[in-house]
Amino acid sequence: MSSSNRTERMLEEAFKIRGRDKKGRKILRIVGKFFPGRELMSAGQGGGEETLRSFLERRVFPELAGAPFVVVYMHALVQKSENFPGVTALRSVYEALPAAVRDGLRAVYFVHPGLQARLFFATFGRFLFSAGLYGKLRYVSRLEFLWEHMRRGEVEVPEFVEDHDEELEHRPLMDYGLVESDHHHRVLDDPAMDTAASMYSLRCIS
């Protein structure tokens, strides 16, 4: 399988439109661990941005334009070196959103955020994104809070996300970075806030 085909397959796994929330709006589920950040970065300057933008324009935006929708982003076990393409790439994609898609976005639910991500966006979120988008961002610390907005069967949750949720339930200090996960991964909540944590942190509803 060629590198471009592999990246396309990974993006298909990361971005899926399936189900509706309790208000009948489409759900765009994004799984951070499936995001091919390293592959996009290796495409060279501008190449990763173009690849990501092209995929979204072909496979995602057409299904969302003209209708209200919500985003569910799952952050469990994301690794900075593997899954993050850079702030510049993600910012450029946000700026390239068609008006019909941007106007239809009603909420972004960030599942399992970390302390560093929360702190970063509390400080810089309004500078990186428009006030309208920032106001739609919601932190969801546990899956049980997500089910207040959508039924369980409407959004597919990978097994490792459920396992991470259970681990957090039994070790709540992991939410504050005081206890490490049993999974030996360095995630986006590394103290190096000038890179990865900037994109994936949103606002708490729990």
Question: Care to give the gist of this entry?
Answer:
Helices cover 43% and strands 14% of the residues. A five-stranded mixed β-sheet has the order 1-2-3-4-5.
What does this structure look like?
The chain has a five-stranded mixed beta sheet with strand order 1-2-3-4-5. Helix 3 (47-64) packs parallel to helix 5 (87-95). The chain is α/β, with parallel strands linked by helices. The protein starts with a helix and ends in a 36-residue tail after the last helix. The protein is globular, with a radius of gyration of 16 Å. The chain has ten helices and five strands; from the N terminus they run H-E-E-H-H-E-H-H-H-E-H-H-E-H-H. The protein is 43% helix and 14% strand. A hairpin with a 5-residue loop joins strand 1 and strand 2 (26-31).
Helix content: 40-55%
Structural category is alpha/beta
Give the integer mean of the pLDDT values: 80
Low-confidence stretches: 184-206
Number of helices: 10
Number of strands: 5
Strand percentage, roughly?
5-15%
Main β-sheet, spatial strand arrangement:
1-2-3-4-5
SSE string: HEEHHEHHHEHHEHH
Shape: globular
InterPro entries: CRAL-TRIO_dom (IPR001251), CRAL-TRIO_dom_sf (IPR036865)
Organism: Ensete ventricosum
Domain CRAL-TRIO: 8-164
Protein name: CRAL-TRIO domain-containing protein
